[in-house]
Write a structure and sequence with these properties.
The chain has about 220 residues and is of the alpha+beta class. The chain has one domain (about 1-205). It is about 30% helix and about 15% strand. The chain is built from four helices and seven strands. It has a four-stranded antiparallel β-sheet with strand order 2-1-3-4, covered by helices on one side. Helix 2 runs parallel beside helix 4 (about 195-205) and helix 3 packs antiparallel against helix 4. The two termini are about 25 Å apart.
């Protein structure tokens, strides 16, 4: 059975955050859901702050938690490196997002059910989809172009039943909605007065609310 996990790749500078973060290796995966610990939420938000230029070695970067959160709220667009990790619980196959893929593009998976080529899933590795009747086969790596892809020697694929994809994406949205709930609790403690604004920003930039996933 195919499963989709919402994941964010932790940035190398999350330790510079003015709040607690989880013990995740640099560039390791953090699973995003309503079951996250406060430290897990802190890791994801710290990663977003790194990509927004609010944390790291830059001179003048804010060091106060509330200031960092205010910077996220004011950012043009929040970037969350990662996306959807595919797993086959029967075979143990796993396909992770490639470099430069972003969670903010998760809704692009919805076009697969209608016959679209699907989202760009990053590079190094460069996952890609192959259609086989009523199945979508997600290979873990391949060429960066869509023309004449070759099978990857780096691991087995994860197969999806096309008609089940909508339900999987609804589950993704539920996980993201749970993350927003945990973020509201986190922000109430770490950045008083900014919880509602932060959640609204994440909701908009990660495209959590709105149309059902099968409608894009």
């Amino acid at each position: 059975m195919a499963v989709l996990d919402v994941v964010v790749e932790s940035a190398g500078a999350v330790g510079a955050a003015p709040w607690s973060v989880a013990e995740v290796p640099a560039f390791g995966w953090v699973v995003v859901s309503g079951r996250m610990t406060p430290a897990g939420v802190g890791t994801v938000l710290a990663t977003m702050a790194v990509y927004a230029g609010l944390l790291g070695d830059e001179e003048g970067a804010p060091v106060d938690a509330r200031e960092v959160v205010a910077g996220l709220v004011a950012a043009e667009k929040i970037i969350a490196p990662g996306g959807l990790r595919a797993r086959d619980e029967r075979t143990g196959a796993v396909v992770v997002p490639g470099c430069c893929a972003g969670l903010e593009d998760w809704r692009e998976w919805s076009g697969l059910a209608g016959g679209d080529d699907g989202p760009w899933l990053g590079h190094d590795p460069a996952p890609w989809f192959e259609r086989d009747g009523g199945l979508l086969r997600l290979w873990p790596d391949g060429p960066l172009t869509r023309a004449a892809p070759t099978r990857s020697p780096n691991g087995p694929p994860v197969d999806f039943v096309v008609t089940e994809l909508s339900g999987l994406l609804c589950g993704v949205r539920e996980d993201l909605a749970g993350f927003l709930d945990r973020t509201a609790e986190w922000a109430a403690r770490n950045a008083p007065g900014l919880a509602a604004s932060l959640v609204a920003k994440l909701d908009a930039d990660l495209r959590v609310g709105g149309a059902d996933p099968d409608q894009g």
